[in-house]
Specification:
The chain has 455 residues and is of the alpha+beta class. It is built from 16 helices and 23 strands. The chain folds into two domains: 105 residues, Rieske [2Fe-2S] iron-sulphur domain (Rieske Iron-sulfur Protein); 270 residues, Naphthalene 1,2-dioxygenase Alpha Subunit, Chain A, domain 1 (Alpha-Beta Complex), CATH 3.90.380. The structure holds FE2/S2 (inorganic) cluster and fe (iii) ion. The site of fe (iii) ion has 5 residues, from helix 13.
Amino acid sequence: MLKHSVDNRIFQGLREKMEQGLLPQWIFTDPHIYELELERIFARTWQFLAHESELPEPGSYVTRWMVDDPVLLVRTNSGEIKAFLNSCPHRGTLLCTADFGKKKAFTCPYHGWTFNLDGDLIGVVAGDKVYGEEMKKDEWGLRPIPRVERYQGMIFGNLDPAAMPLDDYLGDMKWYMDIILGRSDGGMEVRGLPQRWVVHANWKVGLENFAGDPYHVQTTHRSTVELGISPQDPLYAGYGHQVVLQNGHGINVITATAPGKPQRPPYQGLPQEMWPMFERNLNADQLKVFAKTTVFVGSIYPNLSFNSPVHGSEGHLHNYLNVRLWRPLGPEKIEIWSWFLIDKAASEAYKEAAYKGYVGSFGPSGTLEQDDTEIWARIVHASKGHMARSKDLSYNNLLNYLMGLERVLPDETFPGPGVAYPTCYLDAIHRATHEYWLELMSKEEESAGENGCES
Ligand code: FES
Ligand code: FE
């Protein structure tokens, strides 16, 4: 039923429009598109689960979601991190109901079956009497998430056992992750818990905004300009490079400095005593890029974004990493998960000051956060009517993704990998991200026999 209501011929027409820098508004609200995204994108691509610092010792656990799949991540006694479906294999209830903690074993609240940190079933209430020998406990352990891999401490899961390795999927994004996550000794650590809040928005809008939309900064966040926190120059968030990477990923390397103007403090204003670590952990090209950068902002497809900004004034600058997961709750709703990460090697005073900067800007009550999500909700409100939902691609309902198309050419001198354009006011990542969306969405079911024969 579903597969026939989103006919592949629609994707054919879409491809043509996307090549022209146009995108129909209904892809952000259509319920059939959303259902297909769950099957063709979220059941096949790598999704972020946690940072390894959230699971510091054997028995540490956190609970997460891969869209609608509840996930229990555990550090086992051998130090390995395992991920299971957080659903009891007896009758299916949610096994672990806490967000995080430390345990030796997990006991189900329904009938009391108990599982160890490796997911093995180790206890069945009155097992000998009610089941007898026919009960093979080793067949009733927790169900593992098919693939769990990590890079620079970031743990990702994949529901598709045949998915490409995470290393290949991230591709050249790893070069930039090395700078953002691996620059200092000991890497990064999560401070506090991930904050969560629900927003009326489509997941692709959050992704777009962080992946490739520095253009909105001067208008959406106008109040920061009026308060003197951001520069008056309307082009400031565009100075730097927008880099298109493989598999729908992209990053903006923002210098926020007009050509010919004095450079901002190097290395995102990080304290000078940390610089020797950067030289130890990064190569010459990575140092060259990092030294000039004020903000890194981008996305790892499909629903992980990151923002590494600078807050404060000269002499009191603070940099941190905010990682965002856009968890879809439907075509018009997302749950935002937001982590604060900081260099493990930074001083406690620096970490505290940076955390305050994060809470006031990109935390759930932060000024910048409020600005963005209000606009995203209005996209949903304005996209549900007859005109916006029309599937007629000749009808005048196509959105504009034209910025820089065929006008801005790649800068071959940029030291980092990927296709780097010499401005961040550009729709190049948007176009590449949506082209990847289309590629995934138009791939037929590989296991049609299983659930692809509905009509
Ligand atoms: Fe978990 Fe019955 S549902 S023990
Ligand atoms: Fe914003």
